[in-house]
Specification:
The complex is a heterodimer of chains A (260) and B (155). By secondary structure, chain A is mainly alpha-helical. Chain A has 13 helices and three strands, in the order E-E-E-H-H-H-H-H-H-H-H-H-H-H-H-H. Chain A is 55% helix and 9% strand. Chain B has nine helices and no strands. The chains are: A mainly alpha (260), B mainly alpha (155).
Chain lengths: 260, 155
């Protein structure tokens, strides 16, 4: 049985004084598209309905769900809106860890079968975020280290959160000191799930980024044990004396918790 | 989580880490004592030697094994303190020391010879030192023969 590569579902959302449905479409390459009827209203009417804000309302749900594609496969899907149906969660579980497979399907669909560095890079500038996302995912999966500067730049200017995440994922597939400032910056972002932050912490440890000591110490206070474990490991790899006191503190806190 | 912290401190291996890990060698849970010994070995620091040697009489066999491994890993800086530990009253500790010195091998020969030349040496310790020295030389000879055979085979 062929596995579906897209999964649409509807979610009710507030829009000004009213409430209406929007269509959320999950894709196997990690892109999430949202369609609201407000998007096809003539601008003259939209000007009248000044309070139309359904896309803004739905944004946290999309941001939360899109991150689930990039967390480790063993991480439970958590803290999501109850409005997200079980089938959507299943879809994410199926494609999490298989995003390159999904990206390949999308790129084939648009006629890109020879995945050279130049071909992929040219798609980073595609007006279609689905294609940008897929090309980035493939570049990461194929460990095309040469694109790291492009990915770093892209994360700064990209408007689509899902595409930013794809670029971050691609960097995590081939951690490099050049991307360290970006990784540190994202480790500090409050809206980022701790499951994903755990991967950032691991990458910062792999590249032994000395400047990451402070944010990693901060991550020791995370709620997710995977994040705390990753931060401890990374601090051990960086071998910076500043980490000793906070690590000993973590040891004591955990000993007390275990005794209690 | 505590296991990971011990591992990380072993990697960092500065003075404060060693001090903390030495303290963990004294706690009641043998799992953490064993991990602390491994982490101290990882530091390869001469500063870790004294607390490791103090732990040679640990009541748990796995902890003693980890401590021995750690001392072997640190190598040469452990030789003199280990030779001093031969004067220990505990039979278990003395046996451990001999085993470790034999494993360390060549770097232990010279300090042992020098000690044997000394005048005020306890007869019991002297016997032990002589035994250790002979065993190191025997092991060294075996290794050399093994190497020779290896060379012949390769040739």
């Amino acid at each position: 049985m062929a596995v579906e590569t897209i999964f649409p579902f509807t979610v009710k959302t507030k829009c000004g004084e009213a409430e209406h449905e929007v269509i959320v479409t999950l894709t196997a390459w990690g892109m999430i598209e949202v369609f609201s009827p407000c998007q096809i209203l003539p601008s003259s009417i939209l000007k009248l309905a000044k309070t139309a804000n359904c896309l803004k309302q739905i944004s946290p749900l999309v941001k939360g769900l899109s991150q689930e594609f990039y967390c480790s496969e063993d991480q439970p899907i958590s803290n999501l809106s109850r409005q997200i149906p079980l089938e959507a969660r299943e879809f994410v579980k199926i494609w999490r860890g298989r995003l390159p497979e999904g990206a390949m399907v999308k790129l084939k669909e648009v006629g890109l079968t020879t995945l050279t560095l130049e071909n992929l890079k040219s798609k980073f500038r595609s007006p279609d975020p689905n294609i940008r996302c897929s090309a980035i995912i493939m570049a990461g999966a194929m460990k095309k280290h040469e694109v790291i500067p492009d990915l770093v730049r892209l994360i700064e200017v990209e408007e689509e959160f899902c595409v930013q995440l794809a670029a971050l994922w691609a960097i995590l597939e081939m951690p490099n000191l050049y991307a360290a400032p970006t990784l540190r910056q994202w480790l500090n972002r409050p809206e980022l799930k701790e499951g994903l932050k755990a991967r950032l912490a691991t990458a910062l440890g792999q590249i032994k980024d000395n400047c990451a000591v402070e944010p990693l110490i901060e991550a020791l206070r995370g709620k997710d044990p995977n994040l705390r474990r990753a931060a401890i490991w990374a601090l051990g790899q960086i071998k910076d004396g500043r980490a000793v006191k906070p690590l000993i503190e973590t040891w004591k806190i955990n000993r007390e918790a275990e005794i209690a | 989580m505590r296991e990971e912290v011990i591992g990380a401190l072993g990697h960092i291996g500065d003075e404060s880490s060693i001090e903390f890990l030495s303290g963990v060698l004294l706690i009641s849970d043998p799992k953490f004592r064993r991990l602390a010994a491994q982490a101290l070995g990882e530091t390869k620091s001469p500063n870790a030697v004294q607390s490791l040697i103090r732990g040679l009489g640990d009541g748990d066999g796995k902890v003693r094994e980890a401590i021995a491994e750690a001392l072997i890993q640190i190598g040469q800086p452990t030789v003199e303190p280990l030779i001093s530990a031969m004067k220990s009253k505990g039979e278990l500790v003395r046996r451990q020391v001999v085993k470790i010195l034999v494993q360390i091998g060549l770097p232990a020969i010279e300090p042992l010879r020098n000690l044997l030349k000394g005048k005020n040496i306890e007869p019991r310790v002297q016997v032990l030192e002589e035994q250790t020295l002979r065993q190191i030389l025997k092991e060294g000879g075996r290794n050399e023969r093994r190497d020779e055979r290896g060379v012949t085979k390769r040739g």
